[in-house]
UniProtKB/TrEMBL annotation:
<feature type="domain" description="Fe-containing alcohol dehydrogenase-like C-terminal">
    <location>
        <begin position="283"/>
        <end position="384"/>
    </location>
</feature>
<dbReference type="GO" id="GO:0046872">
    <property type="term" value="F:metal ion binding"/>
</dbReference>
<dbReference type="GO" id="GO:0004022">
    <property type="term" value="F:alcohol dehydrogenase (NAD+) activity"/>
</dbReference>
<keyword id="KW-0560">Oxidoreductase</keyword>
<feature type="domain" description="Alcohol dehydrogenase iron-type/glycerol dehydrogenase GldA">
    <location>
        <begin position="22"/>
        <end position="194"/>
    </location>
</feature>
<dbReference type="InterPro" id="IPR018211">
    <property type="entry name" value="ADH_Fe_CS"/>
</dbReference>
<dbReference type="InterPro" id="IPR039697">
    <property type="entry name" value="Alcohol_dehydrogenase_Fe"/>
</dbReference>
<dbReference type="InterPro" id="IPR056798">
    <property type="entry name" value="ADH_Fe_C"/>
</dbReference>
<dbReference type="InterPro" id="IPR001670">
    <property type="entry name" value="ADH_Fe/GldA"/>
</dbReference>
<protein>
    <recommendedName>
        <fullName>Alcohol dehydrogenase iron-type/glycerol dehydrogenase GldA domain-containing protein</fullName>
    </recommendedName>
</protein>
<dbReference type="Pfam" id="PF25137">
    <property type="entry name" value="ADH_Fe_C"/>
</dbReference>
<dbReference type="Pfam" id="PF00465">
    <property type="entry name" value="Fe-ADH"/>
</dbReference>
<dbReference type="GO" id="GO:0005739">
    <property type="term" value="C:mitochondrion"/>
</dbReference>
Amino acid sequence: MRIQQLPLPGREGHEAILCASYLDDIAEALSRWHAQRVLLVVSTSLDTKTDIIRDIETRLGQDGDYRLSKKTGVGSHSPYHDVIDIAHRVQSDSVEAVVSIGSGSYSDACKAALMLAATLPLGFGPIEMEALVDPVTGLAGHDRLRPPTTKLICVPTSLSAGEWNMSASATNPQGKKQHFAHPQGAPTLILLDPRVAATTPSHLWLASGMRAVDHFVEGMCYPGCPAEAREVSSSGLRQMLRGLHEYCTGRQTMDEKELLRGISDCQRGSREALLPYMKWGVRFGASHAMGHQLGSLAGVQHGITSCILLPHVLRYTIDQTQTAQTQVLSIFNEALGWEETQAGDAVARFVALLGLPSTLTQVGVTDDQQIQKIAENTLSDVLAGKKNLPDVAGLKRILEMAK
């Protein structure tokens, strides 16, 4: 089913296809756009351990006179050097369409690269890239970036939900995550193909699902979250919890139908994760802001940062977000048949159910200097702008709780 990505002004022409067939839909889009010079930016594991990338190369080779090039592999948290590499390829080869097949690091790298390719001269480096970023907010926005001129297709293999956004994150050489955004920065087309996503290792899929759960929960806990936004987040959270449960059951029972249904439910749910932010200006909180910096500084995967931080953020902020946490708790209990009494405990139990890491020690972050640096970097994260985060002492306390 073809839909507009998000029901927002200015997003016309940015489409998504639910239950897509990536082979047919990529070929159809490139043909419709008359795009001949195409860059594939693809997951290393998909390229080396499956037939998915080989099949699309074969299909495009049979369908037309395409000039295909390929970049295999993007580092976690979209390092500047990968973003720059993609942008340089786009500029030097006059690429007309980029196809990203991979996790959120791939879609973020491609989105940022296309904004930068339209903004900076050929041959730019990390210094020029960093100069676009406001050092206070960690953001290069529409006043500093030009809109992309190259089409982008994203075939996500995770649930981080970043492909739905008009912004992208990338990690600078100092290990700090910076953000790049433009109203036209979203992909041209998103293809949600459950069979492609089914190739993702289960621990990566589940971790990215927790990232989406974090979107919903922190959005609901945002002070002044509008009722409409809260309803969207509530619905999306229920669908995501159901989908992750179906996914786990399908894997355990080797029921492919239930597995794919769970993936599809998760993908539909992930679409709702960023809508409150995009439509109503709902902001995420300390779990996201610290997660950005924990991820880029210590190399911890998105989603795992949520597993580790979100329960403790909820516990630390319970006095300020009691009403929202009560609603979050009821959704977990209803969806999973539980009788937990605290939202933080319910999230922690769900992380354990998924078999994912839940402490900083498990991901090798134990040094006090690391914790101090993560807390300090968080205060200049793009999410710190709304002043809805604890102070540095509070951030360090949450990190200490997560040890």
